[in-house]
Design a protein that fits this description.
heterodimer; A: 287 residues; alpha/beta; Rossmann fold; 2 domains; 6-stranded mixed sheet; 4-stranded antiparallel sheet; B: 263 residues; mainly alpha; two-stranded antiparallel sheet; 10 helices; 68% helix
Chain lengths: 287, 263
């Protein structure tokens, strides 16, 4: 479990703390989405999880290991992997296999073991056969999958995705989403920083940050259906959530909170089937 | 995309040779080349081209990889050709401006030497992947550990320098395209030279930013300076030892044979 207790952080020269008394716990196998406007402290928070930033005050523990102790950092970085926004700036090797081998090499593993981990990781992310390719020849989505493979070679327990899909096309995003679900099913906890609310809706839990504080923490249905609050923070709610919200305001239809088009279609289908001819007539037969 | 001496994967005796042997051979050959006369250089050309044949690297690829440096060679050759005093060979302006025998000889020797150095370096990089090169370098520099210099850090620095070459090229192309889209003209040499100042500064800033992000990503993957291991671990075998002995003997013989050395 990741346990953050009373975490504060003030950058050198800054007036206001970037993180103010953060308390948060992330369980194994949990998929947590971290949302919030720019400057809300999301990236600073997740960089603590990988010991890239050491807590100034408060505590961050990864499965009982304190991030405050430098002697724990190597192990913590093995346990918590991190994928960043720009895939090009994460590539270390000149070939796909060399890049994946970088992490295990840092752990001073034997060449045979490194080779095995490279093969396994590439298979997991669906890039088997790409071993000798130059990472610079890969598409944006493939590069992010390569970054994931590089982490998987370290057998992490948690993976932090820091706006990983923001520069990807829908197809590539889909591949990353599928991968996230597969990893979660294998027991890996996912912490996903995102500005995309539809992406956040796929998580088990959503944490909303503003000005260095956690202002909401709950299920996607609880956090993402508060359309007014999201809009005030400059965040765009998922279009389907906004549509349902407006319909409810306009006609007091009492439509339940839905987060995806699939859920909305399912509800509407049941409603149409259950309401008989009257409901259809009400729609003037246009549905 | 980066092409100068880029690794050409193939299965050959030269490719399979231990990278340490290839690096040592390259250094020895380079030292020798600087001391050889035209005849000696001719012999080393035959050796290098023979090795290229053995490594199944076409001479066309070798020539293509060194093509970008030929304008420099040509300029150097012309300087030697026209400005070296000596016995006149061809008069351009009678008694004032001429090509001397010495100029022709020195220019040919200089260009021959530099090109051979580049061909030897190309043979190394075209037959050795960056991973092999890095590990080979790391193993060769290991004794520096005694004076507190980490061979692992030096090897990583070299490998990152190679890694940044394609990134630098992509970045530069993107910046050039952005400027062309805003009406910049790169048709003439003058316009290209003028554009250097507009490209250099953002390029430097972008590379610094990229480097910082790369360092963060490396740390996140557990990097810390010092000892690390590699995907590829070289191991010397009989063929490697034989290659080392042969190269050593060839260099020694060339050095010993006074007719090949500049007196």
């Amino acid at each position: 479990m990741i346990k953050i207790t009373n975490l504060c952080h003030l950058f050198k020269g800054a007036q206001d703390p970037t993180l103010k008394d953060i308390n948060l716990q992330v369980r194994e196998r949990e998929h947590l989405a971290l949302i919030g406007p720019n400057g809300s402290g999301k990236t600073t928070l997740v960089r603590h999880l990988n010991a890239l930033i050491t807590p100034q005050s408060g505590e961050v523990e990864i499965d009982g290991l304190s991030c405050r102790k430098a002697s724990h950092h190597a192990q913590i970085r093995r346990m918590v992997g991190m994928v960043f926004q720009n895939p090009d700036n994460q590539i270390v090797g000149m070939t796909v296999e060399e890049d994946i081998a970088f992490g295990p090499g840092n752990l001073n593993m034997k060449a045979d073991e490194i080779r095995q981990r490279v093969t396994d990781s590439l298979q997991m992310v669906g890039l088997a056969g790409f071993e000798k390719r130059s990472p610079f020849e890969l598409s944006g989505g493939e590069k992010q999958l390569l970054a994931l493979a590089g982490l998987l070679a370290l057998n992490p327990r948690y993976i932090v995705l820091d706006e990983t899909t923001s520069s990807l096309d829908p197809g590539a995003k889909g591949r990353v989403y599928d991968m996230v679900k597969t990893l979660q099913a294998q027991g890996i906890g996912i912490i996903q920083v995102t500005h995309n609310m539809e992406e956040a809706a796929r998580a088990d839990r959503v944490v909303l940050m503003k000005g260095g504080l956690i202002i909401a923490d709950g299920s996607p249905a609880e956090v993402l259906t508060d359309v007014d609050r999201l809009k005030k923070l400059g965040l765009a709610p998922p279009p389907i959530v906004e549509l349902i919200s407006r319909l409810n305001v306009m006609g007091k239809h009492g439509i339940p909170a839905v987060l995806s088009v699939d859920q909305a279609a399912d509800w509407l289908n049941r409603k149409l089937a259950g309401s008989g001819p009257d409901f259809n007539n009400g729609m003037n037969g246009r549905i | 995309m980066y092409k100068l001496g880029q690794y050409v994967p193939a299965s050959s005796l030269v490719h399979e040779c231990d990278p340490r042997i290839k690096i040592v051979a390259m250094v020895l050959l380079s030292l020798l080349i600087l001391r050889l006369n035209l005849l000696g250089i001719g012999l080393v050309y035959i050796l290098v081209l023979g090795l290229a044949l053995l490594a199944r690297i076409s001479w066309r690829d070798l020539w293509g990889a060194s093509r970008p440096v030929w304008p420099l060679f040509l300029a150097l050759f012309c300087i030697y050709l026209f400005f070296t005093p000596g016995a006149p060979l061809i008069h351009i302006i009678p008694d004032r401006f001429y090509i001397s025998q010495e100029g022709l000889a020195s220019g040919s020797l200089l260009v021959g030497r530099f090109w051979l150095l580049i061909l030897a370096a190309e043979m190394l990089t075209m037959t050795t992947s960056i991973a092999e090169l890095t590990v080979g370098l790391q193993k060769l520099l290991e004794p520096l550990q005694i004076i507190g210099i980490s061979s692992h850090n030096l090897a990583l620095m070299v490998s990152l320098a190679f890694r940044f070459l394609p990134a630098l090229q992509i970045e530069m192309n993107q910046m050039r395209d952005a400027q062309v889209a805003r009406g910049a003209n790169f048709d003439s040499m003058r316009a290209r030279l003028r554009a250097v100042k507009y490209i250099t500064m953002p390029l430097v800033f972008n590379i610094i930013r990229r480097s910082e992000e790369l360092v963060t990503a490396m740390e996140a993957r557990g990097y810390k300076p010092g000892i690390r291991s590699y995907l590829y671990e070289p191991a010397l075998d009989g063929k490697d030892c034989l290659a080392l002995v042969l190269i050593g003997l060839a260099v020694f013989a060339a050095w010993w044979e006074r007719t090949l050395i500049i007196q």
